Every structure is written in structure tokens, then in C-alpha cells.
């Protein structure tokens, strides 16, 4: 429990009394960041940003007045509702495909393979963006195209946080009628037990593979994108035909695509 004298600030100082200038702006942002990291009273905030208690109090009081911070009894300073409003506004003002474009272009230039961005919509993957590859024939995927979640690498990446019961449900509805399909020779070899074991490996590794599960001779490496809530909101993948996507290359691509996914997630607050 923190000292109540630190968690219950005195009435906010007037805006005229607040220090001005670039240094003050940076200190004010430092206060917000200190609270975001867990500082709850003036002493902790002051220690974090290197200011006196009186200066810290003036900064914090102005931020409370403007709703960037709030004070909760027996808790202290926490982030305020204004930051929630601005966070949603920032997310809405920059659509995901536009935000992701530089990262997808980076993957395209690095690999020469087809790069996708997709989200989950119901039981399907919905493709939002595609960079065609330079290696091999053109794939049939396209923006606005849908595919079953359980059969694509990017779909598996979108399911990494889902319970095993959801994996099984999606697996069962994606199995071709009669359990076999000559167009998917690799897919017909999979049992639920095999799929489940692979999914647990993917969860542990933070990535997913498509090993010709959806189309013959097509393989891909995928990773999830997370937002500020840490929830998976999208996925990215690098795909190619078997001659251009041997298992050795897929393994080498795992840290590459995870790094790009992490940096894109950071842009979303993840």
C-alpha cells in the first residue's frame, strides 16, 4: 500500500502555474509513461523522471485536469480516459492495410515470395492485402478472397490464442466431404491428432506453417499481429511453391516474419 499522502494529490494547480516549454512537454510525457509503467504516487513518478516533488505535482495535476491521468482512492495515479479516446482515434485514422504496407513491402523485397495480410472473419481468413511474389507462378489468393481458417498458415496464426476445442471445430468443418480430396494430397494425410500436435508446436513458437494444407505445392510461414490489448487482430504470411519454399527456408523465415510481426504489432500498441 502506498503512502496516502502520495496517492491523494492536492487540488490541481492552475494551468497558468504550470511550467512551459519543450522540457516541460517532455516531462509531462514522462509522467504519463511513468504511470503506464506502474508508478502510482508522486514519489515514484518523481524518481522515474528525475523531477522534484513540487514540479511532479504540478505536471500530474495538469494531466489529471485534462483527463490524461486519473486518481483512484487507495491506488493512486492511473492512465486516464483521454488516452483511451485518443488510442481508438489513432487506430481508426490509419487503416491496418495502410499501416502494414511498409512491413509487407519489406518482406517482399527480402524474400521475393508472395506476402499476405489477413484477418479473421467468422470461420474464414479474409485477405486484406497481397504483394505478389517474384518466385514461381501466381497464387490464386487475392484481396477480398476467403479461405477456411484451419487450412491456411495465416489462419493457423490467427488461431494461436484459441482453445483446442475451437481448433477441432474448425478442423472438422474444413475436412473435405468423405475425409479425402485428391486435390489436397498432403491435407488428406492429416488426422485431428496430427493437426492438434502441430498447433501446440505453433503456439509455443509463435508462428504457423502451411505445409500444402490448403493447395497442392503451396507452403507458407505466418505470424500473428497483436494490438494494445495483446489480442491477435491480424496475421501476415510469406508463401511460395515447394521449389522456392523448402523446409529449410521456412525454418529460416520464422524469426524474420516474427520480427516483422512484432514491429507491426508495436505500431498498433502491441
Number of strands: 8
Biggest sheet record: 6 strands, antiparallel
Q: For the residues shown, what is the average pLDDT? A: 84
Using the coordinates shown, work out and report the CATH topology of the largest domain.
Beta-Lactamase
Number of helices: 10
SS-based class: alpha+beta
Unreliable runs: 1-18, 181-188
- The portion of residues forming beta strands comes to 15-25%
Estimate nothing, just give the exact number of structural domains: 2
Gyration radius over CA: 24 Å
Using the coordinates above, name the CATH class of the largest domain: Alpha Beta
For the biggest β-sheet, the strand order reads 5-4-3-8-7-6
Per CATH, the architecture of the largest domain is 2-Layer Sandwich
Query: SSE order in H/E notation?
Result: HHHHEEHHEEEHHHEEEH
CATH superfamily of the largest domain: GAF domain
Amino acid at each position: 500500500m502506498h503512502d496516502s499522502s502520495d496517492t491523494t494529490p492536492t487540488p490541481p494547480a492552475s494551468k497558468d502555474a504550470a511550467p512551459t516549454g519543450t522540457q516541460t512537454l517532455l516531462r509531462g510525457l514522462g509522467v504519463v509513461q511513468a504511470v503506464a509503467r506502474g508508478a502510482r504516487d508522486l514519489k515514484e513518478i518523481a524518481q522515474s523522471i528525475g523531477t522534484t516533488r513540487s514540479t511532479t505535482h504540478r505536471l500530474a495535476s495538469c494531466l489529471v485536469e485534462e483527463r490524461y491521468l486519473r486518481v483512484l482512492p487507495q491506488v493512486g495515479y492511473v492512465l486516464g480516459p483521454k488516452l483511451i479516446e485518443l488510442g481508438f482515434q489513432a487506430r481508426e485514422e490509419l487503416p491496418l492495410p495502410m499501416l502494414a504496407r511498409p512491413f509487407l513491402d519489406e518482406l517482399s523485397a527480402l524474400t521475393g515470395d508472395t506476402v499476405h495480410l489477413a484477418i479473421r472473419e467468422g470461420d474464414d481468413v479474409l485477405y486484406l492485402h497481397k504483394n505478389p511474389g517474384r518466385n514461381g507462378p501466381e497464387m490464386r489468393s487475392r484481396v477480398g478472397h476467403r479461405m477456411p481458417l484451419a487450412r491456411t498458415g495465416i489462419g493457423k496464426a490467427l488461431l494461436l490464442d484459441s482453445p483446442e476445442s475451437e481448433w477441432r471445430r474448425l478442423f472438422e468443418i474444413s475436412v473435405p466431404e468423405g475425409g479425402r480430396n485428391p486435390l489436397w494430397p498432403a491435407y488428406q494425410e492429416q488426422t485431428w491428432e496430427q493437426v492438434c500436435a502441430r498447433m501446440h508446436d505453433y503456439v509455443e513458437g509463435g508462428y504457423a506453417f502451411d505445409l500444402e494444407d490448403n493447395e497442392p505445392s503451396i507452403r507458407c510461414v505466418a505470424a500473428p499481429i497483436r494490438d494494445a490489448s495483446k489480442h491477435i487482430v491480424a496475421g501476415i504470411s510469406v508463401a511460395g511453391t515447394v521449389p522456392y519454399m523448402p523446409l529449410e527456408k521456412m525454418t529460416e523465415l520464422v524469426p524474420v516474419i516474427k520480427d516483422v510481426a512484432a514491429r507491426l504489432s508495436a505500431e498498433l500498441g502491441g
